[in-house]
Design brief:
Distance between the termini: 16 Å
Order of helices and strands: EEEHEHHEHEEEEHHEEEHEHHEHEE
Structural class: alpha/beta
Shape: globular
Helix content: 25-40%
Largest sheet: 7 strands, mixed
Radius of gyration: 22 Å
Strand order of the largest sheet: 6-5-4-3-2-1-16
Amino acid sequence: MHITFLGTSSGVPTRSRNVSSVALRLPQRAELWLFDCGEGTQHQILRSDLKMSQLSRIFITHMHGDHIFGLMGLLASCGLAGNVSRVDIYGPEGLNEYLQACRRYSHTHFSYPVKVHAVRPGIVYEDAEFIVSCNILHHRVTAYGYRVEEKNRAGKFDVEKAKALEIPPGRVYGQLKRGETVTLKDGRVINGSELCGPTEIGRKFVYCTDTVFCENAVDLAKDADVLIHEATFAHQDSQMAFDRLHSTSTMAAQTALAAGAHHLIMSHFSPRYAPGNAIELKDLLNEGRAIFPNTQMAYDFMTYEVPRRR
């Protein structure tokens, strides 16, 4: 699980920060998933090491422009390039109607299948390796946070030990690799877990924006390996955060702490904290770390590899 931040500003882009988008690359299956798609996201992808041809899923948190204005352009470009096989898009009610209107008035035709899924709290996607779930956050419009959970995997299969036990190779090896108990033709019962190393715990990635502090965000982020959480405002501007239903740096840190997350990366910063102003982004970072020490501040094109637990 490899994260690339494509936009870390809130509301409007700045010279150094684009509006919201985060890419999650899954190298083991050559797939790219996007979380939000603010204006200019496709340009950011072109400036990164990401491959547009690997794009397969897009998860939209809510319908504000700084999170969706890049979506139609990205999809149109993928169609013209002809290098995307299918894209599934997940988001709130109204997302499909928005895209249909964009297609109709711009006379855009997609040369590949695009499927829009209206999400509700709970599991929105699952396959053999991953579960993606969402929950409603607390914002001015319906907004969702997303949790991507990698399923646990059996530990490494010890082939040499299997050979020493004179277990014949073939389909039975696959069963034992999955930790199953197998009865051999000679009557021996072999527990696959005894031939495998420790279980590999699946990694957990959580993305929460836009929201003021809420318990649903805490629930989503339980035991997350990495929590990406908006920190639009400094603690000093907390009243503004409550009025606009956005988070401060301290709210993001409190969410990570309450959830027992392992790492917090703050994003979605107001341009008001530019260098030279009374409060700068470094101050937000210090505020966050005072509550949750393992806090990091995102910047455009920053990458982060979600580690496996030892």
